[in-house]
Design brief:
The protein is of the alpha+beta class and 327 residues long. It has 15 helices and four strands. The protein is elongated.
């Protein structure tokens, strides 16, 4: 279940209340006239089944509610009812995509900021230490620190929703983040090598570098695209179902951070062929992440639109004085 908190002018609030009252998936509807002081208006609160939140919000937008008021969307962790109100199964709730939440979460993860760049540089530093020490644990730690899931998710959402502004911000953050990390990482590795704190030469033999590390830092192969596809889809599933967290970030970063760190090391040690191979790994992974994530979101968006078309006519829209069609 999802809780909606709506602020609207009296006229729009009256029509919104009528619309919500005629919507079967809405329950616990409360209308408090004149309760809001800034901006002045009425307060409406209700609960909606997760699968119907986006259509309900779209109808409220058609009424012009956000133009002079606001709509807050809050997931409900626990909902206990004896059956007198609208409910949904746990499976239905977990599979539902609330597109407004996807937009909000994505917008907060795509900004190019000092914090983002700092985390990217630190992730590459940790990954460089893991590669030099042949320590997979350090490389996993670098994946946890890596912040690249946000821009990847933002670019996928922007492609599906045709939002060039969001796409530009996401890709700028992604490219700038990795370029900054590689440049700062390479410069730092060069200085530390010169002062004797890093090894004098980069050892790339199979005896020194574990196969698990070589697979995510070397030239791209079949598993590059296979793993990146799985990671891209998993990331979008987690984003769409409000499960985006540290573990999903690790899954996405496993395809990017180690390769970027190896590019930085190879540049510092003058291993141009190694740098090219790792750069190919990084580029292939990012492209596959974007394509797989966008494809999954596009399918979900198409299914969502198809379900909405099947629900016509919509008596709630008619009751509120809106054209009886999906938007």
């Amino acid at each position: 279940m999802i809780h909606l908190r709506i602020v609207a002018t009296p006229e729009k609030a009256s029509r919104a209340r009528t619309l919500l009252a005629a919507t079967p998936s809405v329950s616990n509807l409360v209308h408090l006239p004149g309760m809001v002081g800034k901006p002045a208006g009425d307060l409406i609160v209700c609960d909606v089944t997760a699968g119907d939140v986006s259509p309900v919000v779209a109808n409220l937008r058609d009424l012009g509610v956000p133009g002079s008021g606001s709509i807050a969307i809050q997931p409900i962790d626990s909902h206990v009812s004896g059956g007198a109100v609208a409910t949904e199964s746990g499976a239905s709730a977990s599979d539902s995509v609330v597109w407004e939440e996807v937009d909000t979460r994505t917008a907060g993860m795509t900004a190019l900021s000092g914090k983002f760049l700092t985390l990217m540089v630190l992730a590459i530093f940790i990954a460089m230490a893991g590669i030099l020490e042949a320590n997979p644990i350090l490389i996993v730690g670098a994946m946890i620190v890596g912040p690249d899931f946000g821009p990847v998710a933002g670019a996928c959402v922007a492609a599906v929703e045709r939002r060039p502004g969001l796409a530009g911000r996401s890709l700028t953050a992604l490219v700038t983040g990795f370029l900054s990390g590689v440049v700062v990482g390479a410069a730092t590795a060069l200085v530390l090598r010169e002062v004797g704190l890093f090894p004098a030469r980069l050892v790339e033999s199979a005896a020194h570098v574990p196969q698990a590390v070589a697979l995510v830092t070397g030239p791209p192969g079949f598993f590059t695209f296979f793993v990146a596809s799985c990671a891209g889809i998993a990331g979008m599933v987690s984003l769409a179902t409000a499960r985006a967290g540290a573990l999903i970030g690790v899954l996405v970063s496993v395809t990017t951070v180690p390769a970027a760190a190896n590019v930085a090391l190879a540049l510092a040690y003058g291993r141009w062929a190694t740098a090219a191979g790792s750069a190919g790994q990084l580029g292939a992974n990012i492209l596959t992440l974007l394509l797989a994530g966008t494809a999954w979101l596009a399918v979900q968006r198409a299914l969502f639109s198809r379900r909405r078309r099947r629900r016509q006519p919509d008596p709630a829209r008619v009751a509120a004085g809106l054209p009886p069609r999906a938007v």
